[in-house]
Amino acid sequence: MSRNKRDNELEGPVTEVPVELPQRTLLVKCPGCRRIIDQEKLSENLDVCPRCGHHLRLSARRRILATVDAGSFEEWDRALEARDFLDFPGYKEKLDTARAKTGEADAVVCGRATIGGRACALFVMNADFMMGSMGSVVGEKVCRTFERACEEELPVVGFTVSGGARMQEGTTSLMQMAKVSAARRRLAEARLPYICVLTDPTTGGVTASFAMEGDVILAEPGALVAFAGPRVIEQTTHKRLPAGFQRSEFQLEHGFVDRIVERREVPGVVAELLSLLGGEAPGVGAVDELHPEPAPRVKPRRRRDGDGAYTKVERARSTSRPTSLELVERGFEGFCELHGDRLFGDDAAVVAGLAWAGGRVMVICGTERGRSTKERVARNFGSAHPEGYRKALRLMRLAERFDLPVVCLVDTSGAFCGIGAEERGQGEAIATNLVEMSGLRVPVVSVVVGEGGSGGALALAVADRVLMLGSAVYSVVSPEGCASILWKTAKRAPEAAEALGLTAADLTRLGIVDGVLDDEGLNADELARTLLASVEARLDELATLNANELVARRYERFRRMGTAALRG
Asked: Are the beta carbons of 378 and 348 closer than 8 angstroms?
């Protein structure tokens, strides 16, 4: 069966078709690859097809058993059940049938548990109960889960699966979207994390409320995640939908999901995120610990004091330099990358996520040029689109909510210049970052690790401390651009580079840069360790200041810039 046809079969759960052979072996046909699988092997693999990787649906109870620490689940509000208050035709019979089939009172199970030793409030929706539709009981139980999490100071972990609002309860079911969203906001105001895991399918009013309100949003592979279902869209537009439309991979590409996680890996990833958002480095065996290949040894390069500014520009652009992501991989103990701006897309030219080293958790945002030719093309050579800056800002706001310091690594020739970037508000995205970063109530340290080009660089460099590598450059415009504009020829770029004052020494003298890291002759591992040590030293200094002092001093830092050039 084609993926498009499966996408349109939303109105009922993907059922397992057992076949009993003479020797009493129970078999199941995978709805993904249509092959026959031994039921026992499928169960051992958490109902993930061992051949094609298709994730079959789990009941709420099985999901809980597969996710939480053994014996840790304590259920809340088990007996709460809906009634047919509208006398909707056939609703009472549907409820009776669903309760008899599942043994559940309604389509969600809520409670308290630990995942990887981390306590959390938990809700798990159940597709087996009227396709996980959201009525008054689902809304009430999820709302109570957020409220109780606030009272007990617990993070919330939610698993969504739903065909949408329960029509048999009329507009009351619609109001559950607002009710739960208001409770979720209270959790945010209490600075408690909410991690949501989207499973197949998550649609309608659930998608348009608490499913898309997580601080971090994970999704299982191939899950249908949509507001309007595929069949509705096809009937409305009279167009056949492309393969993969509205699947979790589509949502990741379009910026609405942080990560796609295989079912077996979900407990480890959730436990890691609960630790990081709680400000604690994960323990031994964390799923995102970094173990990069050793860096090749390099011979120390003889210092050439006579090198001009343009030579440094050329070195800053060299493809042999370690990129921002490589420095994170080599310097930090672990990095959990998160994706998407929640508005349009996920820009590969900006990497962002949670990193840790020496027990300290940080939010990392950096422009990334890419290492191989193929990767550089995919990352647009480090020139970000608006969604890249908006992704970085989303992570900075996350850092502020959970009191985590922000570290930005800058290496870009500038923000991308293109039709699409202008249509989506490149200037607005950069401007918003400048305003928001100036008022972030957590420490911010930015490091120019390669080329710092114009506003595209500054959008990640409104910081309490700005550092530069000795071989890096930072400028209002590229030397070529300056020469072309002022002298009508790019051949005078070396002359422009000297005049622009773009080296680390120039910028330190002007008070724009607070420190220079000597990277002469260092390989990638040595440079990463030097960078991390310098960043940690600055964060230690800034940790003595409260939020109001940080914001005030950051303002004064930038307020002073350029005043030496004034007369009168």
From this structure: yes
What does each C-alpha distance from 482 to 317, 413, 451, 512, 561 come to in angstroms? 17, 13, 15, 20, 21
Q: Which residues contact 445 (CB under 8 A, 6 or more apart)?
A: 405, 406, 407, 408, 463, 464, 465, 466, 467, 535, 538, 539, 542
The model's confidence at residue 26, banded by pLDDT at 50, 70 and 90, is confident
Question: pLDDT over 70 for what percent of the chain?
Answer: 92
Tokens of 418: 């293109």
Residue 30 pLDDT > 80: yes
Q: 380's torsion region: left (phi>0), alpha (psi -120 to 50) or beta?
A: left
| Average pLDDT over all residues of the chain | 92
Separation between Cα atoms, residue 95 and residue 83, nearest integer Å? 8
Q: How far is CA 151 from each of CA 146, 147, 275, rounded to the nearest angstrom?
A: 9, 6, 20
Q: Which helix (H) or strand (E) holds 480?
A: helix 479-487
Say if residue 234 is exposed, middle or buried (CB neighbours under 10 Å; 0-12, 13-18, 19+): middle
The answer to whether the Cα torsion of 126, 128, 133, 136 is positive or negative is: negative
Question: Which tokens in the block code for residue 194?
Answer: 């909410």
Distance CA 218, CA 196 (A): 6
How many whole angstroms separate alpha carbon 12 and alpha carbon 14? Answer: 7
d(CA 459, CA 448): 12
Question: Hunting for tokens 């958790």 — which residue is that?
Answer: 361
**Spatial distance between the Cα atoms of 326 and 424, rounded to a whole number of angstroms:** 29
Got the DSSP string for 175-225?
HHHHHHHHHHHHHHHTT--EEEEEEEEE-HHHHTTGGG--SEEEE-TT-BB
